[in-house]
Amino acid sequence: MSLNEIRRLLGLIFLVGVALPAAVLAANPTAVTVPDLTGSWMGILSLVIFFAAYVLIISVETIRLRKSKPIMVAAGFIWLLVAIAFNQQGLLFTCVHARELDLYQPMVQ
Question: Phi, psi at residue 27, to the nearest 5°?
Fold first, then answer.
């Protein structure tokens, strides 16, 4: 590799590793207060659901179930609990807006 190619590669690494994450972090101009659910019953229930799915993954050989099925079901229930918590605090549109930003923003750029 020539010195010019190494410089181009280092520039690309800098762009991907430093400049793009900084631009993404600076792209959200509005601050949103996110409820702390770690000590609530929903946070504890989410942990129980996660550990139950993890136990099913460990016993995947005996129950003859794909690893992805318990995790996907557990993730669905956990996100349902998050949606319920945001709805109870009147932040449902904030939750929907954050989901849309996560899903659609990479496609727009």
Answer: -80, -15
Q: How many domains does the chain have?
A: 2
pLDDT in tens, 17-35: 665 555 555 555 555 566 7
Q: Are residues 5 and 39 in the same domain?
A: no
Taking phi over 0 as left and psi of -120 to 50 as alpha, with beta for the rest, 90 belongs to left
Statement to judge: residues 51 and 79 lie in one domain: yes
The percent of the chain in helix, strand and coil, each rounded to the nearest 5, is 75, 0, 25
Range of the domain at 1: 1-29
Q: What is the pTM of this model?
A: 0.57
